[in-house]
Design a protein that fits this description.
Layout: H1 2-29, H2 36-44, H3 56-76, H4 86-107, H5 119-144, H6 147-152
Helix pairs in contact: 1-3, 1-5, 2-3, 4-5
Length: 167
């Protein structure tokens, strides 16, 4: 189970990078907006949530990657016996978006709920989370690709192979 958590966390980190690319591209394509991790860090740290905080960029990045890695580790647990499908990962990413932007993020006062936020921003965030889910599955399945082959081949012999002459 620990191996699954680690592979899921690594996959979640990779997927967070893909998610971030979509998020930043969408932000630049429309009116530029501050990434949600910065809103969240500002809401959690003491002081005004409207003023920059020392180290907020680093904290936001660490929190974002940590959240993505944790979500990836949790995703891997129910898929210990089989490889997940991309559609399952995409649904997982969309569920993270829904729970986050309709639930705990507005609960912190960091951002308005998705249905009251700028539609363009929420469309980009939803797409980024779908991308996260797809990338999570692709990375996890790639990390697990060789697991089945080594089990099918049986134990590895440490003895010297016989030469054609039998010696």
């Amino acid at each position: 189970m620990i191996r699954d958590l680690v592979k899921g966390a690594v996959s979640g980190t990779i997927a967070t990078a893909a998610h971030t690319v979509v998020m930043m591209t969408g932000s630049r394509a429309g009116r530029s907006w501050k990434p949600p991790p910065k809103h969240i860090v500002r809401a959690v740290l003491p002081g005004s949530k409207h003023r920059p905080k020392p180290g907020e960029n680093v904290l936001a990045t660490v929190a974002h990657v940590g959240f993505g890695a944790t979500a990836g580790g949790l995703f891997a647990i129910p898929f210990r016996r089989r490889r997940p499908r991309v559609a399952e990962g995409m649904a997982y990413g969309l569920a993270i978006w829904l729970v986050s932007y309709q639930g705990w993020v507005p609960g912190l006062g960091a951002m308005p709920p998705a249905h009251r936020d700028r539609p363009g921003r929420q469309a980009v965030l939803a797409a980024a989370h779908v991308t996260y889910g797809a990338a999570l599955v692709l990375a996890l399945n790639a990390l697990r690709r060789d697991e089945g082959r080594s089990a099918e081949m049986g134990p590895v012999s440490r003895e010297r192979p016989l030469t054609p002459t039998g010696r």
